[in-house]
Design brief:
alpha/beta; Nucleotidyltransferase, domain 5
Length: 299
Amino acid sequence: MNLSIGIDLGGTNIKAALVDTQSAKTIATLSKPTRDGEFENNTPRFALTVSEVVHEFEAQAGQKLAVGLSAPGLANPNGQGIDWMPGRMHGLEKFDWSAFLERDCRVLNDAHAALLGEVWAGAAKNCRDVFMLTLGTGVGGAIYTGGRLLTGKIGRAGHLGHLSIDSNAPRDDFNTPGSLEDAIGNQTIGLRGEGRYATTHALLDAYATGDAHAQKVWLTSVRHLAAAIASLINVLDPELIILGGGIATGAKDLLFKPLQQALDDFEWRPGGNQARLAPAMLGDSAGCLGSVFNLMHLH
């Protein structure tokens, strides 16, 4: 059995998996708190926890193992670490994981890893052209085109939440006016819902009862999402679009049905060709599996 370790370093929790690289099967999993902001002898506590997890899995496997790690921020083009992650995950920027763990460790962005996991063992299995949007507090994304992950020059590719839907609207955290993230991300629900809904899930609860105000707010957001997806279809020509994240998981048909209706209106379909929509399948394990897949398919 060929084994590797996949680690998804999140802002709240560190998720890890011992993975059989031949079958994409998860042999064992662990989850531990990240403890962002804590240091021991100038080393981030999360790095020490990652090291503990690695040694725990290696004791189980009885051998030294390669490690794939995903984290927020822009990954170094050589996969050595995260080059840019301002504001949180203190100590992550420029951290040399291979040197710290004393073994080969390849690092990539967490959204990129989640899509690679879906390509390897989830909703996008056997696909060569697919992009994913994760709908949550913000809106994340990743692109797999021609059988390869699109990372761009500095690792910035795939920030699909920062597409501009309205150039006259206020700018988001990434300086994008009227971004997709602001149009549907949970962080703006108070503004979009005129203070009536504490969360997107509360909005959806009201929408499901037929509340007229909730219907207007939600369907406006969904049409913005459809416009963005239709635009991305024209740019990337995917066979599949995956939707993940807490909003998509919680909404289910309350999202997919009106979104498909809007795409039926917006999508250009030469010769009847239509891109498919699908929910993400792997949940919390996507990042761990994608980190291992990245380790296996380095170019």
